[in-house]
Write a structure and sequence with these properties.
The chain is mostly helical. Helices cover 49% and strands 6% of the residues. It has a domain of 75 residues.
Amino acid sequence: MGNANRSSQQDRFRKIVLAIPKYLTALTTVILAGATFTVQGLVDFFNGQIALLDAATNARAQLKAAVKAIKDNRTTNGPVVKGFNDLILSMFSNQPTVLAAFGIATRKQPAKTSEAKALAAQRNVATRKARNTMGKKQRKDVKGNVPALQGAPAPQASPAPTPAPTGTQQPVPPGPNADHGAGVAPSPQAVSPAPAPTAPAAPAAPAAGTTPHA
């Protein structure tokens, strides 16, 4: 029953209470819905209805005032309650039993929706592409390329070393001071090879007008 209907009902019952003694004094008893009422019984019945409606109206007003007080208290003292809860959570975050003793439930991470997961995957791919990040398989497939050098001279072979002249080494006869240098081996001296023999010169031709002798 709304406030307007309740107020209208209360006003009507008050009118009935005033009208019964004025217009129903000729009745001794009356049966209504199986119940027997005298004139005074009817007055008492409707006074009871008025009292119930008044109590409901008063209770509703008190409830409205109580709800407003709760809202005001939440605005004023709510931060204190929240700060206390945060303090207990920071002190006993890993102890569910202690949290339950304070009537605090452990915080649960909200489950990601499929749209959030898809967005996170796309963001991860975009980030890897921007940073040029590659996985193990991708790194294995990457090989370095060295560009061919054009116009570079071909490497030249180094000349072979000239062999030293071969010759026989003959011991040098001891000098006059050989006795003073006993125990010291004379250093060998290289002997140059003997010169090759030269061919004999040809005889001179006779002068003109001369007869060669037999």
